[in-house]
Design brief:
Number of domains: 1
Structural class: mainly beta
Shape: globular
Mean pLDDT: 92
Helix content: under 10%
CATH superfamily: TolB, C-terminal domain
Low-confidence stretches: 1-28
Strand order of the largest sheet: 1-28-27-26
Number of strands: 28
Distance between the termini: 35 Å
Largest sheet: 4 strands, antiparallel
CATH class: Mainly Beta
Strand content: 35-45%
CATH architecture: 6 Propeller
Length: about 350
């Protein structure tokens, strides 16, 4: 990754309307602050309780690095170069194609590595106090076979479980963090994409040469970790499920019977659920972040034309919400041709209100 120069960083901050905005500049989107600038696409973002910010690099972009920490407005390899692929062949020793990222309440950084080149899915855990790899899980082929696209997850650190979403063959995976055992639930309509087009800037978004139809992707847990929430990217319904059913290994019929709508959602790539039970979604079509309250209504939280594919959201301390913006719809996987992205790319934040 080419680190932006300080002059590029300063210019980007001004152009983005964030920190250091020039006097008299337009006020549109003034709530949006720049956290970090990169000329390589960020994937997802996560925030620790002390305010440290971490990000993956998106596998659909062109980067030699996989995992970073935001420092002084830029992205630096985290924890160091030892886990970065850095242009080498995929191996067990390094990250391959990570995307989802989260910090739990015990100060551990979790990263899901889809293994698109290595051919296996792995979940990595780093101790943020030491920067050391704490543990690495390899999902068995029976629940995440080669070709899986496990890109989002939620961690229950109190009970020792991870819940993961696979969009390739839409399904939910429950992973016991104590013994590494995992099982899968699939085949349910709630996991499937709806037959609706994604339109960004007036254009139907294709993926793989045809209109995008992406299944279960965003997934979160309630603050007490008892309720799992999920929905399809190409979907307008947000679902809920008692997490204990997945922990207890309930049969598919029992799990299916317990799935219920939790409210509406936009076509979205990322979501975060706060302690009050509000769900914050990225709205890909409207360059926005919207919130779903307990009254079951969607309301705009933030709209800004700079949110060109707001990928994911992370709740930070002091009421800040962080998001990565990466112009993903302009990558070759979506355009079917050249990369139409225009770097630099950004990590932003805004205050919830």
């Amino acid at each position: 990754m080419k680190i932006p120069s300080r002059s590029l960083l300063a210019a980007a901050l001004l152009c983005a309307g964030g920190i250091g905005q020039a006097a008299g500049a337009p006020r549109q989107g003034a709530r949006l602050q720049v956290v970090a600038v990169s000329d390589a696409r960020p994937g997802n973002v996560a925030v620790a309780a002390d305010g440290r910010v971490f990000a993956t690099y998106h596998p659909l972009g062109d980067t030699r690095l996989q995992l970073a920490e935001a420092k002084d407005g830029r992205l630096a390899p985290y924890p160091d170069m030892s886990v970065q692929k850095n242009g080498a062949a995929a191996s067990d020793a390094t990250l391959d194609t990570p995307l989802g990222i989260s910090v739990d309440r015990k100060g551990r950084l979790w990263v899901i590595d889809m293994g698109l080149n290595l051919g296996k899915t792995r979940l990595w855990s780093f101790d943020l106090n030491t920067g050391q790899l704490a543990r690495k899980y390899e999902l068995p082929a029976s629940v995440a076979p080669e070709g899986s696209f496990v890109q989002d997850f939620a961690i229950d650190e109190a009970r020792g479980w991870a819940y993961l979403a696979d969009i390739a063959d839409p399904g939910l995976i429950a992973l016991n963090l104590d013994d590494g055992h995992a099982h899968r639930f699939g085949g349910h309509a709630s996991l499937q994409a709806e037959d609706i087009d994604m339109r960004i800037d007036g254009r139907v978004v294709d993926f793989g040469g045809k209109p995008a139809r992406v299944g279960v992707n965003p997934i979160t847990l309630s603050a007490d970790r008892e309720t799992l929430f999920f929905g399809a990217m190409n979907g307008t319904t947000w679902y809920r499920l008692p997490a204990r059913l997945l922990r207890d290994g309930a049969d598919d019929a029992a799990v299916a019977a317990a799935i219920a709508p939790a409210g509406p959602k936009p076509i979205s790539d990322g979501v975060a659920t706060d302690a009050a039970g509000t769900h914050w979604f990225t709205d890909l079509q409207r360059h926005a972040v919207v919130r779903l309250g307990r009254d079951g209504r969607l309301r705009d939280a933030l709209r800004d034309p700079r949110l060109q594919w707001p990928d994911n959201l992370a709740l930070g301390p002091d009421g800040w919400i962080y998001l990565s913006v990466n112009q993903l719809d302009r990558t070759p996987a979506f355009t079917g041709g050249a990369d139409r992205g225009r770097p630099p790319y950004y990590l932003y934040r805004f205050r919830a209100r």
